[in-house]
Amino acid sequence: MAQSDVIVLGAGMVGTSTALALQQRGRNVLLLDRRPAGRETSYGNAGLIQIEAALPMEMPRALSELWRIARKQGNDINWHLNAMPEHASALLRYWLASSPARLREIGKTWSQLTWRAGDDHAPLIAAAGADHLIRKGGFRIGFSTEAAFDRSTREAQSFAAEYGRGLRLLDGDTLAAEEPALTRPFVGALQWTDTWACRNPGALVAAYAALFEARGGQFEMSEVKSITPTAHGWSVQVDGARHEAPEIVIAAGPWSARLVAPLGYRVQILRKRGYHRHFQGGTPLNMMFSHAESRSVVVPMEQGNRVLTGAEIARENAPPTPVQLDRAEAAARTYMNLGSAVENMPWYGNRPCMPDMLPLAGKASRHNGLWLHFGHGHQGFTLGPTTSAVLADQMTTGVAAFPALSPARLGL
Ligand SMILES: Cc1cc2nc3c(=O)[nH]c(=O)nc-3n(C[C@H](O)[C@H](O)[C@H](O)COP(=O)(O)OP(=O)(O)OC[C@H]3O[C@@H](n4cnc5c(N)ncnc54)[C@H](O)[C@@H]3O)c2cc1C
Asked: Does Zinc appear among the keywords (predicted)?
């Protein structure tokens, strides 16, 4: 049995950053994960530190979009009828939260959090010796039709002005010159310039975990079986051992709801599944490229060009149905030399999304010493260090700088 001040459960970007933030504030932290750090959702993402994302990913509400989604025709969204019963209530709440008025309200918190994300990552990247994994300069969205380019340019310019985010417009020739990997002409592109890209997201989390250990923190690879309150705090049962601490942080991403359910917390998490696959032997991109019309996304990674998908609503243990990935690969092959697939089977994992799009970072309402830190949705890789600083400040000073992240708002 080991003694620590705080046990952090989950060593993805969110849990590892939490452990570092608490350690920096003088806490003796035990970080637990059943796998090495950064091997799950925090491995499989697009690796963007999305400083440009002033708003979270809302649910489309336009009738034309809903009709397109209903017919499952895009690369961005897929769904399975048998997954609807378990997700219906969360989807309804997500729909309500996506109204323009609610989204604007949520954006007041979200835009502040993403704006400081680079500043919160920067000292960790430097201390972890991970500068080689980071590329600054943003990402691009390319357009094949004048109409879509003009409409998106107007919307992007208004968004950039309202939230103070960096935007660059490229004509087709400039795009071709700056991204020679593209093999066919485009009308133009938008480049969100503030955002950083990581060439190996799992490796960055592993570097953060190594930093935590180098600074004296303890990381243990164990599967957590149960969490129970004790007279003095919390007891965590792992295979063949028990750990105790006065406080515990649940940062287990999409698995968090299951871990706190026995304590009486019914957490609605919308699991938005995403897929990726690497390709080698083609021409590497200089930066992430998204093709607007096909909604395909390709990101240059250490492992090759990574083709990613949008969201799929599937049952938790449903077998993979990577139809979006097949479409994205086919689309990407029309504009670049992708090469051949590295993996036999695509990777897939779940974005842990709260129905109101804001993560939880705060105290659980019915237990002392129980802190909830999950539900970062589409931007957990971006926001890990930021919401960790917010949470760690609250745990050590009692001041909650962002009350909108409180679990109490969802009755948790
Ligand atoms: C396709 C895709 C693209 C994305 N692109 C981006 C992007 O570009 N930028 C961005 O900011 N975000 C992106 N995201 C979202 C981002 O990846 C997630 O929000 C983030 O990784 C969540 O981190 P986490 O630490 O909460 O969860 P995870 O990384 O899943 O970590 C949770 C950890 O808990 C551990 N765990 C769970 N249960 C137990 C247990 N019982 N015992 C022990 N350990 C346990 C798991 O092993 C895991 O390591 C993307 C997601 C996907 C799927």
From this structure: no
